From TrEMBL:
<feature type="domain" description="4Fe-4S ferredoxin-type">
    <location>
        <begin position="38"/>
        <end position="65"/>
    </location>
</feature>
<feature type="domain" description="4Fe-4S ferredoxin-type">
    <location>
        <begin position="2"/>
        <end position="31"/>
    </location>
</feature>
<dbReference type="Pfam" id="PF12838">
    <property type="entry name" value="Fer4_7"/>
</dbReference>
<dbReference type="InterPro" id="IPR013283">
    <property type="entry name" value="RLI1"/>
</dbReference>
<keyword id="KW-0479">Metal-binding</keyword>
<dbReference type="GO" id="GO:0046872">
    <property type="term" value="F:metal ion binding"/>
</dbReference>
<keyword id="KW-0408">Iron</keyword>
<dbReference type="GO" id="GO:0051536">
    <property type="term" value="F:iron-sulfur cluster binding"/>
</dbReference>
<dbReference type="InterPro" id="IPR017900">
    <property type="entry name" value="4Fe4S_Fe_S_CS"/>
</dbReference>
<protein>
    <recommendedName>
        <fullName>4Fe-4S ferredoxin-type domain-containing protein</fullName>
    </recommendedName>
</protein>
<dbReference type="InterPro" id="IPR017896">
    <property type="entry name" value="4Fe4S_Fe-S-bd"/>
</dbReference>
<keyword id="KW-0411">Iron-sulfur</keyword>
Length: 65
């Protein structure tokens, strides 16, 4: 089964993925990344690997594996 993996250092906090996720599997982390943004986190138990997050992300944060 596919899952979304992330590179949080690429995240710039647009949060398009949070709005697009049909399973509410993506949330904002309480830390900041190297660029000073609060990156996202994928709850792997909720993620169904649909790839919508990958499609809407302008910063190539996601990889579907």
């Amino acid at each position: 089964m596919s899952k979304a993996k992330t590179n949080s250092n690429r995240c710039k906090g647009c949060y398009y993925c949070i709005k697009a996720c049909p399973k509410d599997a993506i949330s904002i982390m309480a830390i900041t990344n190297k660029k000073g943004y609060q990156p996202i986190h994928v709850n792997e138990e909720k993620c169904i690997g649909c790839g919508i997050c990958y499609q809407v992300c302008p910063d190539y944060v996601f990889e579907i594996v």
